[in-house]
Amino acid sequence: MNAKEFINSSMRCPKCLKKLETNENYVKCIGCGEKYLFEKGVLVICPDDKYVSSFSLEWERNRFTQVDSKGYVCGYDGAKDSKDIFNKKTLLTSEECFSSIILDAGCGVGRFAEIVQPSAELLVCIDLSRASYLCRELLPQENVLVIKGDLENIPLVDGAVDISYSIGVLHHAKDPRKAFSEVIRVTKSGGIFSGWVYAHNKWAEKDLVLKIKNIVSKIDPSVLYELCELAPEVKRALRSFFKKVPAISGSKNDKECILDTFDWWSCQYRKHYDNNEVHKLLTELGCIEIGWGTFPVSFKCKKK
Predict the structure, then answer these.
(1) How far apart, in whole angstroms, are the C-alpha atoms of residue 255 and residue 229?
(2) Which residues contact 208 (CB under 8 A, 6 or more apart)?
(3) CA-to-CA distance for 224 and 246, rounded, in angstroms?
(4) Do 138 and 239 fall within a single domain?
(5) 208 burial class (0-12, 13-18, 19+ CB within 10 angstroms)?
(6) Are residues 136 and 76 in the same domain?
(7) What gap in Å lies between CA 78 and CA 55, rounded to an integer?
(8) What's the pTM?
(9) Which domain range does residue 251 map to?
(10) Do 107 and 69 sit in the same domain of this protein?
(11) Residue 28 in domain
(12) Averaged pLDDT score across all residues of the chain
């Protein structure tokens, strides 16, 4: 199935839920008549960044920082590169991905999508931020459809994809349960859903830290990013006194340290989970055969 066929058969209008059909430069709802334009190869369902403007900024400044084909080396212990992280956090095999229709729910610049693309029949990448444009630039292949859209209202019909995955994104949704529910809804019965969300962190979830985080996240993102550029040097200075600096990323890759420190402090929403909470959520949303990876909390399951 190519992208045009997928749009005509498997996409729906987020406003009235009727089917969409393709035209030369846009997609039109057969119900309400709403038009959605293609811009730089990206199908724009949500022009507004809503609450993810900080993610747009961080990825525009780090479009290649974590991309394997651009030389990425992971700065964290326990992983080598994005491919290694993908394998450990999704537990997906190349055999499962082969000739499948796959959803990358929260694709960012496409760091994980480029790993999946060669195996997929069609790879559907969705992201609410402007990183979606960078994903399209990284992955211009015909078997890739990039959509700028909202994971809490995915513009796909029920059971549209064979496999869905989301790595480090669902916990940033305004309503994480709704985002989980939507990704599962668009996965076919018997299909696979896998991913990774933040594990509980005693320091990060302290009341004082959350209050500080709430204040910091309201700083202009450009100003906050400049402050976070100091993170690697500050961390090295403090390492003489502390084994771990909790407010700063532990990555030994300086660019990644800046990126992840900014990501942590700038995001508007963040939720933490443990295995029991994720298991309960997935079960309530109709998933079975739930398994766990070595990175907390990474999971893999099937939709009933």
Answers:
(1) 8
(2) none
(3) 17
(4) no
(5) exposed
(6) yes
(7) 25
(8) 0.97
(9) 207-266
(10) yes
(11) no
(12) 96
